[in-house]
Amino acid sequence: MSVLQGSQVDGDLFAPVDSQRKHAAPPLPLFGQGCAHPQLPLHISGTVVTVLSGPINDPIYPLPYAMAFLDGDSVLSPSRRQGFQAFDWTWHPTFHGIPKIFGPPVGQELILQSGIIQSRYGFAVQFELSLPTNLSSKSRISFPTPEECANVGEEHHLYGFRKHRIGYSDGSIWLVYSLAQQAGCTSHLNLQRLRPPIWVIQELGLVSSNLVKMSDHYGRQLEENSHRESEEFVYDHGIGVWTHAATLRSGPMGSGQYSFDWITGGPRCNSVAPLMFALPHHTEALSDPTIVVKPEIRMQSRVTGVMRLCRAARWLFKENVADLRRYGIKPDYLPNGPPLYDALKIDLLRQVMVKEIDTDFDAESDLDSYYFSGKKLAKQALQCLTASSILQDRDLAGKFVEKTKKSFDKFCRNRSKAAPLVYENTWKGIISSSILRTGNRNDDFGNGVYNDHHFHYAYFIHTAAVLVYHDHSYLHSIRDYVHDLIRDVNNSDQSDPYFPLFRNFDWFLGHSLATGLDTNIDGKNQESCSEDANVKVWAEVTQNPRLGALADLQLSLFKRSVNHYYFMQEANTNAPACFKGNRVPGILFENKADYTTFFSNEKDAIHMIQVIPITPITSFIRSPEFIWQEWINTGSPTENTRQVCQIATKLANGYQTLLLTQYGIVDPNYVYNIFVKKLWMGQEIPLDDGLSLSWILGFLINQIELNKSEEKNGC
User: Fold this and answer.
1) Which keywords are on file for this protein (predicted)?
2) Between 20 and 30 A from 587 (CA), which of 164, 203, 229, 695?
3) What is the Cα–Cα distance from 312 to 315, expressed in whole angstroms?
């Protein structure tokens, strides 16, 4: 479950996007009516979507566990696998000798049963959702499921404890702590063999039953055990307190500080700090590393490395937001003033831009897809920046700006070829109305069911920022439109009744999730980690320091997490050694990494999707060290592996052009010369639909000067 599901936020950074329009309803002339829903906005990156709308057997993933509701048996099933040995037998077909998929299986090691729970609604009510139910309160099992768990256990009004130790022949152990629901209750837990190798722990109400030692031919021992090993001792002393949720609290603006203040329950919640497992990027950023239990208790997560057990009511983190000061909307930042570009390079760039200005911007961007229209608009915005910042031609830049504004205005007025946007009042957000007309949840990549909103709308936000940067008077006519898009994907005001907090950004994982209302047995996913980094530039041009500080914090956290889980350098220990040769996971689910995309199995597509769009912030997210390793070390050096460097330099499609362009962060002269040679030979350079030739050249020309400056300053 997301940290924000049922939680609170507090601190300087969490306020309305626009203080002048606090709690403003999305204008109905622009966003049509949806169906009524009485609840406050729900966060779709948590477990609620799976519980309410997914197939009833789909698991949820409170790390490091998996839990599932098994319909026929009316049971809740927590499951975990310990250590990398799980990966030894979950490899899927190889991609040029390197495993293509890894992840632990969704197995059942332990089942908890309460006979009163008969349906999905019986399950859902335990997550404190307002659903009709006539369940008796005398017999129930309730599961608080924050996204990170030290234990998964029954919640009762507790007075006493019983402990059961279940040992497996593979060395893994389950500790089961049973707690009486009320004073004087004689209820016990009964061990029942459902089928090898699964055991059921069943609540028996007021029936007296003794737990006895037993075993099966698998060698599993199930017994009460008072033996205190070091890890067991920690759990014993941590029992009786659990977390329901957390308050996400920010530090002062510009400090880079934030914290999870855990909201706890249980009979010992006022005297004992909760035990919770932390991901690798958490422990790396902790301000107080002493909260990690010593000696360390570790557990393998699903696909994001080894988690470490922490004991604290508060996790405080510090991110280095100062690194972001050099990054903004302009590409030409240099500490010693504007760069002096090579005259011959600028002349070639001018020739290219003079040709590009004759393009029909309106026809190019007015498409029936918000995703592809957004990419085209962002391409035009980068042409504006190239003309003003690199070419430094105000007249030509003005022409690009006016043509881009005309393109953008159609979307602000909801009069493009794409299905009009509407405000949907069940999950509280802005969606394409195409789904209401066709009933096809896959229209425009699932925009109507909240898939990929942070990708789709980020392109519009970036375009708007560039236009306001060039013409501040334009802000008045587009402010409300852009702010409502930001509220949809990155709302930071918990009292906003129209949009949920941070719809896509998962503060516990440290990055966004692209899945909306779709469900999958392997959980939520994201295949691109590079398309949602644009709120910062909007804050810059609108002079909103609070929003800018929030964006800096998110980007710093985002950089840390993706360099743990998406960008797999040789030193990365979060993925198995035989998988990290892929360098990127492909589609990263909660329960598996799949080296592919939803639209292609080709390597250029798999790597390109982690690059787009190339903007001034790209070099902050993608370090030169990672780009170099991805370029030459993707797989083995044999011809059959088709390394990224071998693919990109073919320039056979727009994906390869993107990959070659981003390598310019490492060696811009090399890349620039490849493109120029193509141009002088009269050969066409294939372009991705979000990329222009002028931006390629401008980006590389500027990167050449940036690298010179860094070398001169010893960076």
Assistant:
1) Carbohydrate metabolism, Cell wall biogenesis/degradation, Glycosidase, Hydrolase, Polysaccharide degradation
2) 695
3) 7
3-state secondary structure of 661: helix
Catalytic residue of the set 493, 527, 590, 705? 527
Query: pTM of the full predicted structure?
Result: 0.86
Nearest one of 538, 444, 526 to 485, comparing CA atoms: 538
Q: Which of 18, 29, 17 lies closest to 421 in space, CA to CA? A: 29
Cα separation, 431 vs 56, in Å, equals 26
Q: Which of 383, 241, 362 is nearest to 312 (CA)?
A: 241
Residues 553, 319 contacting (CB under 8 angstroms): yes
**Catalytic annotation present for 71:** no
What's the one-letter identity of residue 304? Answer: T
- Whole-number Å distance between alpha carbons of 526 and 268: 38
Alpha carbons 350 and 344: distance in angstroms, whole number: 10
- Burial letters for 642-654: b for 16+ Cβ neighbours within 10 Å, e otherwise? bbbbbbbeebebb
Q: At what angle do helices 693-712 and 668-680 cross, to 10 degrees?
A: 150
Q: Residue 284 phi/psi, 5° resolution?
A: -70, -30
Q: Which amino acid is at 195?
A: R
Residue 114 pLDDT greater than 70, yes or no: no
Amino acid, single-letter form, for residue 332: D
Instruction: Count CB neighbours of 391 within 10 A.
Output: 22
- What CA–CA distances, in Å, run from 63 to 151, 301, 325, 592? 10, 6, 34, 13
What is the rounded distance in angstroms from the CA atom of residue 352 to the CA atom of residue 358?
A: 11
Closest CA to 495 of 2, 4, 9, 1: 9
Q: Is residue 11 classed as helix, strand or coil in its secondary structure? A: coil
Q: Which residues of 514-546 are buried (b: 16+ CB within 10 A; e: fewer)?
A: bbbbbbbbbbbbbbbbbbbbbbbbbbbbbebeb
Helix (H, G, I), strand (E, B) or coil at 352: helix
- pLDDT digits over 302-337, tens only? 999 999 999 999 999 999 999 998 899 998 777 676
Q: Select from 316, 313, 195, 177 the least CA-distant residue to 259.
A: 316
Distance CA 581, CA 632 (A): 11
527 is catalytic: yes
* Both structure tokens of 667: 């060696």
Q: Determine the pLDDT at residue 380.
A: 99
The reply to whether 452 belongs to the active site is yes
Kind and range of the H or E element at 608? helix 603-608
SS3 sequence, 567-579? CCCCCCCCCCCCC
* 98-99 and 94-95 strand pairing: antiparallel
Q: Residue ranges per domain, the chain?
A: 54-216
Concatenated DSSP letters for 496-548?
A: -SSS-SSSSEETTTTEE----S---TT--EES-SSS---HHHHHHHTT-HHHH
Catalytic one among 531, 540, 552, 604?
531
Q: Residue 137 has which token pair? A: 């309160």
| DSSP 8-class letter at 610 | T
CB 484 within 8 A of CB 496: no
pLDDT per residue as tens digits for the range 8-39 = 777 777 777 776 666 666 543 333 333 333 35
CB-based contact 527:516 (threshold 8 Å): no
